Amino acid sequence: MTVFQHRPTLRWLVPLLTAVVLAAGGSAVGVLSATARDGLPHRSASQLLVDVQNARLEGLSGTIVQNADLGLPSLPGVGGAGSSDMSSLVSGSHTLRLWYAGPDRVRLALLGSLGESDLVRNGTDLWLWSSKDKSAQHRTVPRSDGAAGDPGGAAAAMTPQQAADAALKAITPSTKVSTDGTAVVAGRPAYELLLRPRDAGSLIGSVRIAIDGRTHVPTRVQVFAANAPDPAFEVGFTSFDPTTPPASVFTFNPPPGTDVTESGSSHAKDSTGPRGQLGPANGAEPRVVGTGWTSVAVAKVPAGSGAVTGSPTMRTLLQALPKVSGSWGSGHLLRGTLFSALLTDDGRLVVGAVAPDALYAALTVR
């Protein structure tokens, strides 16, 4: 079975790869080929996309390092480098361990200087554990049928080449895709794909994706802000073992003294903190204004979520952000190197890889 059709968790491994394709809305494959360094044969961009689509991998493990320099202000309640809180991933440098043995057996550990947080999926059991807080949240989830994440019923029946061709035709307008030689990631030779937006209005300048030369699994993603020499966001393997981990890795038993919250309890329903984050959010689907790299998502914050006026943490966060206003109303602006986000006082959340003016304009589109 293919990695990207029947192993959705592997797509989640390097979430930016999927996010880039979805956000970009388009790409034109360059004719350049990756140079044959590190013993790898020449591959064109279109050939590499077929390789990724056709990759077969039943399991893997490895160490991942993430670096984020998104230009965000210091935010209350968000840890920085060395923190084991999952919210800390928005800034600083972090080390994670990953074990994967199929969509029903996944373990991700965020290693901090003073603790560890683990997300563990084992069959129908899903755990989120914090050693620092001595807390764990557990819920039961449906068993995967192996087809979740399929890009579409028709695409499932296509050959890898047909699926890649269909994807390229569907996303032609807004992105330039080419190869950019090879690299060594986690001690293994890899090809590099380079994605560039055609629209200069995007805050993203380019995305560089390393694809393992042997397994064809993406092993590193680097996102560069426009006109910036260094990546604003990078996530990649520093060690990579393409063999299936033992089943014992996915067995989780809360250590003695752990405060366990079962999904469905009043605590899990009402919490707006980390213990209440395993459940799906309720609310209408966001409306998308524009296309490609400059598209903007406009969503209504669910009533009663407490996100706007509820928790003290959110009130402190809003106070840390600059207040802005216009014909669209007023709100608080979060501006980074790769994206801008606006939370209006009437409960609308607006996000895009664009400058704030584009967010304001999206609010006026009906």
From TrEMBL:
<feature type="region of interest" description="Disordered">
    <location>
        <begin position="137"/>
        <end position="156"/>
    </location>
</feature>
<dbReference type="InterPro" id="IPR052944">
    <property type="entry name" value="Sporulation_related"/>
</dbReference>
<feature type="region of interest" description="Disordered">
    <location>
        <begin position="246"/>
        <end position="285"/>
    </location>
</feature>
<dbReference type="InterPro" id="IPR029046">
    <property type="entry name" value="LolA/LolB/LppX"/>
</dbReference>
<protein>
    <recommendedName>
        <fullName>Outer membrane lipoprotein-sorting protein</fullName>
    </recommendedName>
</protein>
<feature type="compositionally biased region" description="Low complexity">
    <location>
        <begin position="145"/>
        <end position="156"/>
    </location>
</feature>
